[in-house]
Every structure is written in C-alpha cells, then in structure tokens.
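Changelog-adjacent note: as of this version, every example in the card shows the full chain rather than a window. The one below runs 300 residues end to end.
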Amino acid sequence: MVGRTFEIAGELRVRRLGYGTAQLTGPGYWGPRLTSGEAVALLRLAVDRGVTLIDTADNYGPDIAEELIAQALHPYPGDLVVATKGGVIRTGPDEWHPAGRPEDLRAMCEASLRRLRTDAIDLYQLHRIDPAVPLADQLGTLAELREEGKIRHIGLDTVTLDQLDEALTVLRPASVQNRFNVLDRESEPVLGRCEELGIAFLPWFPLGNGSLAASASASARARAGAGSGSEAGAGAAIERVAARHGATSGQVALAWLLHRSPVVLPTPGTGSAVHLEENLAAADLVLTDEDTRTLDALTS
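Full-length structure tokens:
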C-alpha cells in the first residue's frame, strides 16, 4: 500500500497529494484566471477534500495566488502547510528574472508574510538560483529568516544534482521542487538524492503541462492511421493502464508519481472543481506491479 502521508523535514505531516495554485492565474502566470469568488471556492474545496499541502509562489499573478489563499483559508487550519517561493521578479506574462540578492530575498519574504497574513511561512523555497549571487549568500539569507522565525523550513526549486549537493554544504533543505512526471525523468538523479536523504520532492508539471494530452492525441491519431512514434506509444501505454482501472490518464500519471517514491509530493493545479476532484481521486488508485513496470519503461 502506498503511503498517503509524508513528514516534511520530519515535522510537517501532509497528505502527499496536494494542490498547486499556478492555475489560479491567467496565461503566462499573469493576472487572474478566475473570479475571486471562484478561486476562493476552489481553494476551500481542496481543503474540504483533505488537502493539507498547498503550493504557491509570490510571483503567481504576481501576488494574486498568495492573496487568494489568505482570503480563502485564513485563519489556517492547524494541519495545513502552505509552501511559497521567492527569488524571481516578473515583468510580464512568462517573463521570469532571478533575484537572489539578500535584500531582494528578504523583501520578498516579508511581502509574502503580509499577503498570507501569517507570522511564519511553513515552507519557503528559493524559486530559482540566481547565477549572479553566490548560492551560500542566497541560502544564508533564508537561514537568517528561519532563525528570525519568519520561515520554518527552506526548500529549493529547479536545481541540478550538483546544485543540490552544493546547497547541502550550507544547509539541509526540507524540499526540492523540480519538473518531473511520467514522461519527463530528467530529474531522476535529484529525486534519488532526495530519497536517499529523506527530502521532500515536489514535482512541478506533474501532469506534464499538456504533454500527457499530446501523447493521448498522438495515440488516437496512430489508431486512426494518421500518426505513429514514441509519443503515441507512451500515450497508448498510459491509456491501457487507465482502462484497466476505469481511470483517466491524468489519474494514472499522478498515481505513478505516488508509487514512484515515498518522498514524492505531487501538487497538481487546476482551475476546475471537477478536475480537482479527479486529481484527488488518484490517491485511491492502486497500481499493479505490471502497471508500474509499463509506466516505468516509458520515455517522452
């Protein structure tokens, strides 16, 4: 039986399948996607359905996602962990600029505290390593904020194995958030190190950000004689597993992540209540050994 919970840093117990807030914002993670009422209702539904880990960032919107979380959920339930991120400045849709100077990180953290209406952030992740600033300085600033009680635990986002190992010479991160899903295994070495050390691994784009849908479409075209190739093969394999369980391809992809390692904590995002319910139901999907062998063998 796949474990349903994980203790981040051995302290913050969460249900492994959480909710990500990026899809509460518009195209390019800019502006709102839903009305305030719709977004608030969706966040409350997630918590009502048992979500105890919500992943967000100061630049989703910017600011919008954090403000919605506070509007919907403050005062926060005692078992709810809100993870946010800082270290990136936005100048427009899909425009991201690392900003890791100590004064930048401190100002971003302080702003997140105000928007989230909290005295301490449960998990604060460095959204991107700024190549213009020594990593020790960036992590040192977060460590200072932790000592001041403004954040409880420190995480990293989008790091290579070498960068993670460098970070480990400064401090022990509670989490790493890298792109990873059933069709994208580039971060396998990083996941391996996290598993070895008991560090939470939060895969972003756990549903592939459209790659699963593209694979399913390629599979359909191949069945119709209009296409072929590895993408179609991957889509067909996922569909076969899904059909055996009466599930969707997305549910299979999430179930595979939960089966892949006990340190994996997927936080799929959506702006749809129906899709949220579908995602959360993936926690009940038990893959067979044959299923996992099939999915493990896939490549994008």
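Structural remarks: DSSP finds eleven helices and eleven strands in the chain.
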